Amino acid sequence: MQTNVTAPQSHRQSHNETFLQGVKDCVPTLLGYLSIGFAAGVVEKTAGLSIAEIALLSVLLYAGSAQFIFAGMIGASASVTGIIFTIFFVNLRHILLSAALSPYFRHLSPIKNILIGSLLTDETFGVASNNTAGRQYLSERWMHGLNVTAYLNWIAANIAGAYLGQWITNPEKFGLDFALPAMFIGLLVLQMASRGKIAVDIVVALSAVVIVVVMNMMSFGSVSIIAATILASTIGMVIGKWR
């Protein structure tokens, strides 16, 4: 008679929830990481950062949008306070990403959750959210495999861009400054296609455009983008709940 107490089925790790499987599931996003990371490295290099500074930035900050912003603001001789606050507000979305996945890691300690959340990105969130269907929990090892692979690939791509960026004096000529928006557009389209709620997504997109246009006409400037993000998301949530 077996007397060992086993973990609940939802806590067990099957053969497809290992660290190695997390690495494999990250592979489809690596090409995007390489291109965006390379572009970030080039832009940072042309902004006057050294290769060592770029490597340190990608290790500690690890945020594509924030690093593009950092490079642009450094090139424009912006103040340290301005850079810090801008990056802080741009990356507030990571609180929402972490909150959305946190229920699937409620069986872990706070420290383990912090380790997972600290390396969470838009891309790894997308991969993870696609694996939440029909599940109450996600594997810690699988998530670490996904996150660590993306993290190391991003650092390598930044350093490669920084090194080769010495010979690229005008990244805008090659469209590298548009690399990040292009990646987010691609991720958005894939996410919309997988959700199967095109009508709601179209309403949210149109709402965001209208809000930005109206607020720009009222001279609200860049604040309109943040307002459009919050208000359009709220409209989408209300429609989804109502339906």
Structure description:
The chain crosses the membrane at residues 148-168, 174-191, 198-217, 223-240. Belongs to the AzlC family. Keywords: Cell membrane, Membrane, Transmembrane, Transmembrane helix, Transport. The protein has 243 residues and is mostly helical. It folds into 2 domains: 18-190, no CATH class; 197-243. 70% of the residues lie in helices and 0% in strands. It contains 11 helices and no strands. It has helices spanning 19-46, 51-60, 64-75, 80-90, 93-101, 110-118, 122-130, 140-164, 179-195, 198-217, 223-242. α5 (93-101) runs parallel beside α7 (122-130) and α10 (198-217) packs antiparallel against α11 (223-242). The protein is globular and about 50 Å long.
What's the main sheet like? none
Strand content: under 5%
Query: What form results from the Cα inertia axes?
Result: globular
Question: What is the averaged pLDDT score?
Answer: 81
Low-confidence stretches: 1-15
Topology pattern, helix = H, strand = E? HHHHHHHHHHH
Q: Domains counted in the coordinates: how many?
A: 2
Helical segment tally? 11
First-residue to last-residue Cα separation: 52 Å
> How helix-rich are the residues, as a percent range?
55-70%
Number of strands: 0
Please give the radius of gyration in angstroms: 20 Å
- Give me the secondary-structure category: mainly alpha
Family: Belongs to the AzlC family.
Transmembrane segments: 148-168, 174-191, 198-217, 223-240
Membrane topology: Multi-pass membrane protein
Organism: Paenibacillus xerothermodurans
